[in-house]
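agent> Task received from the user: take the single chain below, predict its 3D structure, and emit structure tokens. No templates, no multimer pairing.
agent> Plan: (1) validate residues, (2) run structure prediction, (3) serialize to tokens, (4) report one or two observations.
agent> Step 1 OK, no nonstandard residues flagged.
tool_call: predict_structure(input=
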Amino acid sequence: MLSVSQLPLPNGASSPYKTMKCVFSQVLMPQGAVSRTSVRLGSRSDETSRCEGLLQGSCTENPSLVPLLNHSFEEICWQAYEDRRALVVVLLNPSGKGQFKAKMLSVLQNLQDNSRREDWFFWAAETTSDNGKKVLEKYGNGSEDQTIFLVPSTRQTPVFVDRIEGPVLTDFDQTRLFDKIKAMIHGLSIEREQQEQWRQLRKQQEDELQQVISGTHHQLSIVEDNLATDEDQAINQTQHSN
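)
tool_result: status=success, residues=242
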């Protein structure tokens, strides 16, 4: 049975990354050979599984987990950009206490239960891993457990929205966060549509300019042919008169 971390990206994803895991798993390597890609995906899958264990181990009950994707941070950012989804990043300190991890899991479950599943991508990493350190350096605070909310931008680099950690996990304003994220994604959609309209207009102008240039070249060719004909006729007349 597939674990939550092995779930593929949802159907309809428009980026090549949506089938990446399936394609990579089907690539046949020579016996004894290991590709760098398979090592990278394997390490991310293991890390995601450890994060699942940290979250589940912090609870006395048997909680349901949100679908944590095991792509690299760059890949999941690209997918969020393509699908216009908010990205929920869960950073866990492997050696930290479990009290905040239990609250964090509750926050994630509330997010999933009180919004549409297709609004979010959930992604987790350890604060000590390469992926985790990369996110901490750019969006995080310290090295403790924290949940970071990002939205894609037109530059394909996620924009920081909010970060919750420690005691704040229990009393942050979820409604305000949802409204802010929805507004930012709506603004992104409008901006991307405007950019697409600009690209189409630019292409139309370039096509029209190319047509004008082609027409001008054609007219010049006709003029050159006429001049050559007139010159030949003048030479012939001169020869006949001599």
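agent> Step 4: summary for the user.
Helices lie at 20-26, 36-57, 73-83, 99-113, 130-139, 174-241.
agent> Done.
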